[in-house]
């Protein structure tokens, strides 16, 4: 039994990525592809935090506006934001106007800069890659948290990050390829090139 859906193009995807064209494009081209640069990881960490309590489709539709509003998620620029920038962001109807999340993004940019002296954000996040990745056949078998995401959340909080709970960090790990939770019947399974068919590291 599997929860994959075969599209008109003959490709198999999970139900969540099979209807909305934007989600399908994201699934086919981005989700689960390794991201290892500082800005890329910071952007995705920030967007996952904004997604908390909302649908990913909502965030994805607003992503171009988020990128413009947050100066391309350049940590050095965002870390320098002051109250005037917070007011600007809170007045921007194109993004999610949640003061706690806006302020968390600014705070996390500063924490990102602090990590540079110790290897950087990307290296820290990737250091929590597990030895095995899940092998889900159905959506119900896809985990939403793991020991590694829990440990990553704990370490990031220790380093001054906020809005980085275990579930949010697990979503980040899925998005940037640290784990592969593509369903086994999906055409994107194994797209990261990091895992063998038995779920062990390649």
Automatic annotation (TrEMBL):
Keyword Metal-binding set for record: yes
Residues annotated to bind Zn(2+): 182
InterPro entries attached to this UniProt entry: Adenine_glyco, DNA-3mA_glycosylase, DNA_glycosylase
Keyword Zinc: yes
SUPFAM superfamilies xrefs: DNA-glycosylase
UniProt keyword annotations, A-Z: Metal-binding, Zinc
GO biological-process terms attached to the record: base-excision repair
Molecular function terms, GO-annotated: DNA-3-methyladenine glycosylase activity; metal ion binding
Protein name: DNA-3-methyladenine glycosylase I
Species the sequence originates in: Marihabitans asiaticum
């Amino acid at each position: 039994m599997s929860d994959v859906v075969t599209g008109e193009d003959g490709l198999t995807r999970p139900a969540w990525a099979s209807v909305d064209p934007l989600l399908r494009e994201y699934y086919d081209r981005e989700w689960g592809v390794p991201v290892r640069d500082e800005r890329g990881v910071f952007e995705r960490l920030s967007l996952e935090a904004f997604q908390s309590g909302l649908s990913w489709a909502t965030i994805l539709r607003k992503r171009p506006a988020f990128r413009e509003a947050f100066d391309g998620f350049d940590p050095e620029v965002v870390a320098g934001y002051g109250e005037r920038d917070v007011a600007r962001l809170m007045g921007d109807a194109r993004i999610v106007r949640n003061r706690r999340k806006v302020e968390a993004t600014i705070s996390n940019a500063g924490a990102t800069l602090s990590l540079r002296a110790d290897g950087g954000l990307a290296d820290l996040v990737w250091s929590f890659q597990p030895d095995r990745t899940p092998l889900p056949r159905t959506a119900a078998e896809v985990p939403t948290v793991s020991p590694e995401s829990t440990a990553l959340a704990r370490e990031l909080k220790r380093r001054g990050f906020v809005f980085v709970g275990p579930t949010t960090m697990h979503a980040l790990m899925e998005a940037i390829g640290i784990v592969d939770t593509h369903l086994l019947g999906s055409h994107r399974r194994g797209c990261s090139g990091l895992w063998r068919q038995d779920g062990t590291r390649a």
